[in-house]
Amino acid sequence: MINKVITDLDAAIAQIQDGAILMLGGFGLCGIPENCISALLRSGVKNLTCISNNAGVDEFGIGLMLKTKQVKKMIASYVGENAEFERQLLCGELEVELLPQGTLAERIRAGGAGIPAFFTPAGVGTEVAIGKETRDFYGKTYLMEYWLRADFALVKAWKGDTAGNLIFKGTARNFNPMMATAGKITIAEVEELVPVGELDPNHIHTAGIYVQHIYQGKDYEKRIEQRTITK
Amino acid sequence: MLFLKYKVIIVLFFTENQPFTTQKMLDKNGIAKRIAQELKDGYYVNLGIGIPTLVANYIPEGMNVVLQSENGLLGIGPFPTDADVDADLVNAGKQTITMVKGSALFSSSDSFAMIRGEHVDLTILGAMEVSENGDIANWKIPGKMVKGMGGAMDLVASAKNIIVAMQHVNKAGESKLLKKCDLPLTGIGCVKKIVTELAVLEVLTEGGFKLLERAPGVSVEEIQKATEGKLIIEGEIPEMKL
């Protein structure tokens, strides 16, 4: 098996040039590639287009990269947790493309699966449909949406092996599996990196073919946005 | 289960000055309780943030209803105890949750395949405006709020059965049940039923809000006054049974 392990994450992130298109996994702060985001902050790379469901919060996740003005454009479905984001958007410092969440997920899946465009009912008759081709199928109107592909996909998994096979945990899976397929180069950071043969092939969520580099992540903070408990 | 934006909307809903202030109108739990009567055994249901989330508290004993979370879970359970909090297990509102027995986890693309593929039986969500032809607006206030649509557009475009849970009038005392929505739309011709603090209404295919039930003690005139769109009143309108 091909060994895809990297021990120097900064060197891997250094491949990312100014102006690159990135995908970053996660839903809110759940399942985000914390180590990769820290490395991006250290690298100072800028003018990035970031494709991610959310934009983090002011003090964590992609929100940190907004503070350092490394992000030129954000493609997301919901950005409501981030005051700095709203500020930059309203004063024109940041470009943003908001998409229905299912459309975002499917555009990424399509990118990874080699499907250049598809039709979805989401957004028909709304401002999301402006400038987009529509077509009727079986008596209903659908909107054409194109695939999304990225120069780099940065994903986070629970476990991974040295061949790049990944297993996710809980709802931290979210956008990570599709993004892994849609990056020209996919860097996966994992909580637990094991030798090949230790993961049951029946349990692999993302096959190693999609992953170019795998990294044993460190110091996960796993911040919780809305800690809600039953007393 | 859906979209953080509703949190904001709900805050508006319940801090507003009610122009129809009476003790008889329903509170948000009352609305949730009435909506729970729409659930059926074996339903897969997607609940929005705010009032819709409260519906989970009123699922009738012995009824099997599976709650879908758009971020990749079927089988949402109660909030965890402090010791059981897991950062890798959250709902669409990013709240920590648990899973019931028999839950399934999946990716965001699988989640929306379920939604667009019409496998979810019922969607309950909040709204800022609904029009008499079933259009819904709930994601954007131009110049004021830019938060995004999350999964709302996918849900309303595909769900067979959509119930809106909302206040009948907005902060300024203006009706939210309109002839035509003013705010940017989330979806067109999709809302089937609306439950507010005053009434249960059906959105007719040919257009118009058909009054089905009144909140206890609320008169038809009060509902008429709070409804800008075409209100259809046929015969005696019964009170909700809560």
Percent range of helical residues of chain B = 10-25%
Q: What's the domain count of chain B?
A: 1
Write down the domain tally of chain A.
1
CATH-level-4 superfamily name of chain A: Glutaconate Coenzyme A-transferase
User: How many strands in all of chain B?
Assistant: 15
**CA-CA gap between termini of chain A:** 49 Å
How much strand of chain A?
25-35%
Question: What oligomeric state best describes the polypeptide chains here?
Answer: heterodimer
- Classification by helices and strands of chain B: alpha/beta
The H-and-E topology of chain B, N to C, reads as HHEHEEEHEEEEEHEEEEEHE
The number of helical segments of chain A is: 6
Low-confidence stretches of chain A: none
**Beta-strand share of residues of chain B:** 15-25%
Largest sheet of chain B, order of strands side by side? 4-3-2-1-5-10-12-13-14-15
Total of helices of chain B: 6
Which radius of gyration of chain A do the C-alpha atoms yield? 18 Å
Provide the CATH top-level class of chain A.
Answer: Alpha Beta
- CATH topology tier name of chain A: Glutaconate Coenzyme A-transferase
Just name the CATH architecture of chain A: 3-Layer(aba) Sandwich
Largest interface chains and counts: A-B, 59 and 52 residues
Q: Quick one: biggest sheet of chain B?
A: 10 strands, mixed
